[in-house]
Design brief:
This protein is of the alpha/beta class. Helix content is about 35%, strand content about 20%. Strands 9-10-8-7-6-5-4-1-11 form a nine-stranded mixed beta sheet, sandwiched between helices. The chain has a three-stranded antiparallel beta sheet with strand order 12-13-14, with no helix packed on it. The chain has a two-stranded parallel sheet with strand order 2-3.
Length: about 400
């Protein structure tokens, strides 16, 4: 059995200010970042995980955060050089950097490109001044435009704009204006997702005034119609791209591929060479603890096997986000289980109009995408199909 494609996720946990909606492992840092120390810890982390992927090449690298663009190009270049010394990096590997438009200095993207970055994801979120203020963003709409211009000068044509909708005090007109402004930059890729109030965030504790359910649905429908009319294809529930510009790194997640996860709080998934065992890895969450463990030469995280009973849900939690859906052969190759283990749930999903046969397998219907959580929940471990769908 051939191993799944392999990716590398690198978590750079620091940011200038924690946004009230953010539930990521991000930490405000004042003063100079411990970049050299952190790069050394990342490489020690990678070296410890490298034997688990011996003989395999890394197809994509993704710097996430936090705000990775707080790190200098020199630090990223040093890190990527260290990666190549420890694991093979595939020719033409996609190397993505998340960037906050408010942290980009003139000429900085030139340095990132020279370091090896060939794709950038800009956290625009909105172009409305009031919405950016309510979201706690440190940038203005003009900063996003300036950052896109800097990308063009640096020759980084492959970029994504992150855009949220159903924001505090947002109207339908405001949401459509956000999409129009984003499209004016002709992004090859656009992430378009609804703001959710996640537990543990400021917004969850003190909810802002959000559009009601009916307005949020109208915003979603009309903005997505506009994205499609502009030539962007929806290939994942919240991801749109021009042909060939799909994010390869994220596609690997959604297709249940493997990934090394290094850095404070990073998660990984690795499949044994025979495909019979899958392990989840998790690294120490607090940057201070992560750095201290690395300095002492201690283990930086834990490894936990994924039980066979949990694999169908984990696979489908990801695969059902894709418009292409999944094929039986992919399910069986990635989970080492027969497709028959989920046939009853698939039949129930089809009966409820949430899943349909298409292409080489099955994919969510439009109704399935609208009620994706309900569709995914059908495959929870121990979930027995109801007598009547």
């Amino acid at each position: 059995m051939s191993a799944p494609p392999l990716a590398l996720y690198v978590h750079l946990p620091w940011c200038v200010r924690k946004c009230p909606y953010c539930d990521f492992n991000s930490h405000v840092h004042k003063g100079a970042l411990p970049e050299a120390e952190y790069v050394a810890a990342l490489l020690a982390d990678l070296e410890a995980d490298a034997p688990s992927v011996a003989g395999r090449s890394v197809e994509t690298v993704f710097f996430g955060g936090g705000t990775p663009s707080l790190f200098t190009a020199e630090s990223l270049a040093s890190f990527l050089q260290g990666v190549r010394a420890r694991v093979p990096l595939a020719a033409g590997a996609e190397i993505t950097l998340e960037a906050n438009p408010g942290t980009i200095e003139h000429g900085r993207f030139d340095g990132y490109r020279a370091a090896g970055v060939n794709r950038v994801s800009l956290g625009a979120q909105s172009f409305g001044a009031r919405q950016l203020e309510l979201l706690g963003r440190i940038h203005a709409a003009a900063d996003t435009g300036r950052a896109v211009g800097e990308l063009a000068v640096a020759g980084l044509a492959n970029f994504n704009l992150d855009l949220m909708y159903a924001l505090p005090e947002q109207t339908l007109e405001g949401a459509l204006a956000d999409v129009e402004t984003a499209l004016a930059f002709t992004p090859p890729h656009l992430s378009h997702y609804q703001l959710t109030l996640e537990p543990g965030t400021v917004f969850h504790a003190r909810p802002p005034s959000l559009p009601d359910e009916d307005l949020a649905e109208r915003i979603q429908q009309q903005t997505q119609e506009r994205l499609a009319a502009a030539g962007l294809r929806r290939y994942e529930v919240s991801a749109w791209a021009r042909p060939g510009a799909e994010c390869r790194h994220n596609l690997n997640y959604w297709r249940f591929g493997d990934y090394l996860g290094i850095g404070a709080g990073a998660h990984g998934k690795l499949t044994a060479p025979d495909g019979a065992a899958i392990v989840r890895t998790e690294k120490a969450k607090q940057p201070r603890e992560y750095l201290a463990r690395a300095a002492r030469g201690e283990a930086l995280g834990t490894r936990q096997p994924v039980p066979a009973a949990a694999r169908p849900f984990e696979f489908l939690l990801n695969a059902l986000r894709l418009t292409e859906g999944f094929a039986a052969a992919d399910f069986e190759a990635r989970t080492a289980l027969p497709i028959s283990v989920v046939r009853p749930q698939m039949a129930q999903a089809q009966a409820r109009g949430l899943l349909e046969a298409g292409g080489a397998g099955w994919r969510p219907t439009e109704l399935g995408f609208r009620f994706l959580n309900d569709l995914q929940a059908l495959f929870l471990p121990g979930k027995a199909p109801a007598g009547n769908p």
